[in-house]
């Protein structure tokens, strides 16, 4: 395990690596479980006997394999609840005890697990509605992709504003200017509607710079206030149907395709 000691422990990246691992594994397992639960619910809805089942029968999303939604006192407990509790618990333990290795890595992995459970239902707490398998639920996949990307860049980058030794190598005013320009370009990304680019750009300056230079999304504040008709048409073409289809393919691959209207209606009748 010399490579682990050299590339993770000695560089201070071990905890970040374990948090990222917990995040990715938990998301993969969670989506596997929820997709199986969903498939079981749709299969039951398609069965002839489901049309004559008593009202409320089978409405808890269980499956013949034992997987199903969790209910406490008749209330469906979404997995984001366990994620929030886990994030809070690991943060409290870290702040109170600040453990050293290996417990720091254990807490980091548990934090990544909690973060994945929480962000996997980002759309639910954003819309205050159970839209997990709806069009709005795709926001959860976007949140997961953003969280994973931030985890990767934070693991690889020592500091969000550059190497800490950089400050000693340049004049104070130049260092502050560099940081100011960097954060300004990240801010422009946010105003242009590029939330993921802006957040990653806070850590990786080149991402913020490229995002700030390129076209804004047509429904962003930047486009509404600064673009004329010709440039707005160009932005709509850049972020049009082909752009959405590419992103939807990635979302479907990671989170599962949205149910068709016919199957969705059957599941609601179940």
Any key phrases for this structure?
disordered C terminus, mainly alpha, two-stranded antiparallel sheet, 270 residues, 14 helices, 1% strand
Written account of the structure:
The chain is mainly alpha-helical and 270 residues long. The chain contains 14 helices and 2 strands; from the N terminus they run ααββαααααααααααα. Strands 1-2 form a two-stranded antiparallel sheet. Strand 1 (71-72) and strand 2 form a beta hairpin. It is flat. The N and C termini lie far apart (52 Å). Residues 53-59 and 262-270 have low confidence and may be disordered.
Computed Rg: 23 Å
- Provide the residue-averaged pLDDT: 83
Question: What percent of residues are in strands?
Answer: under 5%
Which sequence of strands runs across the widest sheet?
1-2
From the N-terminal CA to the C-terminal CA, the straight-line distance is 52 Å
User: What is the H-and-E element order?
Assistant: HHEEHHHHHHHHHHHH
Helicity, in percent?
Answer: 55-70%
Tell me the layout of helices and strands:
Blueprint (H helix, E strand, L loop, with lengths): L1 H8 L4 H33 L24 E2 L2 E2 L2 H19 L5 H17 L2 H6 L10 H19 L9 H4 L2 H20 L3 H9 L1 H9 L7 H6 L2 H10 L2 H15 L5 H9 L1
Antiparallel strand pairs: 1-2
Helix pairs in contact: 2-4, 2-6, 2-14, 3-4, 6-9, 8-9, 8-10, 9-10
Outline:
With 270 residues, this protein is an all-alpha fold. It has helices at 2-9, 14-46, 79-97, 103-119, 122-127, 138-156, 166-169, 172-191, 195-203, 205-213, 221-226, 229-238, 241-255, 261-269, and strands at residues 71-72, 75-76.
